[in-house]
């Protein structure tokens, strides 16, 4: 079905929503600064900041060396001095050199200063597989940072959420890691409201109501989970699909309310299964809603291998398909 714009919205894909939101932020607040590799003259490898440097100048659109620790470290200093930096890590796979700046500095600034300082920093990065990116352009990084108090993690799936959550991240006084699944950049389209609006961080969205099974997902897999749930609906099976949107803070209430209703839980994510987000959700539900469950919690996640291979069969073996998701849902509903 085609998506048609209304007078109060514009049809965009996810990458267009990122670009439009960044442009409005730069236009509306001169404290906003963008920095990262190739964000200036080249306009980002996905052309998200194309022509920004011509309009906003080199002092606000800053091409950096290939040095992720410096990108985030400089952005932390900018944030503490009253700017609103948006630091880009070109691909999530390259974020590791900046781990100390994110975990040891940005996330601790409010706590270590007893609230005297904050760090209003957004770190944007594309993540995830499905694009034949091989070992260095396919990783999911959310679990590596999920353990860190003081750091928020956001992973929108739809263009309207991209805009609303990115605005909320920019407005937030503390650091936010903003994850953009690159396969959804041009694949997913939808209506995006005009003007400035925010979506509160930490609020999930029930994308499809159901009564027999709760499915929790985010990113690209959220779209495939919805596709699978629609297949089951044609078979007369009712699956509720929750779009997590914010990984931390997490909307525990939405998950628990759904599990109380459906009495079954399937967690689907692209990242490795061991130690992933699904493990925390499973533990939370087991601690707080165990006696509401009619079957064991199940996770459908990435295998315990370092990354995806370049060869198509290796990538397909790593990633779950909509058909595999439908099989897992069907088995749980009929358990």
Structure description:
The strands form 3 sheets. The chain has a 7-stranded mixed β-sheet, with helices on both faces. By secondary structure, it is α/β, with parallel strands linked by helices. α2 links the parallel β2 and β3. The chain has 13 helices and 14 strands. The chain is 37% helix and 20% strand. The mean pLDDT is 96. It has 2 domains: 9-193, Thiamin diphosphate (ThDP)-binding fold, Pyr/PP domains (Rossmann fold), CATH 3.40.50.970; 205-333, Rossmann fold (3-Layer(aba) Sandwich), CATH 3.40.50.
Q: What class do helices, strands and sheet pairing give?
A: alpha/beta
CATH superfamily (homologous) name of the largest domain: Thiamin diphosphate (ThDP)-binding fold, Pyr/PP domains
Mean pLDDT: 96
Report the top-level CATH class of the largest domain.
Alpha Beta
Instruction: State the helicity in percent bands.
Output: 25-40%
Structural domain count: 2
Shape type: globular
Note the run of SSEs as H and E. EHEHEHEHHEHEHEHEEEHEEHEHEHH
Number of strands: 14
**Which architecture of the largest domain per CATH?**
3-Layer(aba) Sandwich
Radius of gyration: 20 Å
Query: What's the N-to-C terminus distance?
Result: 34 Å
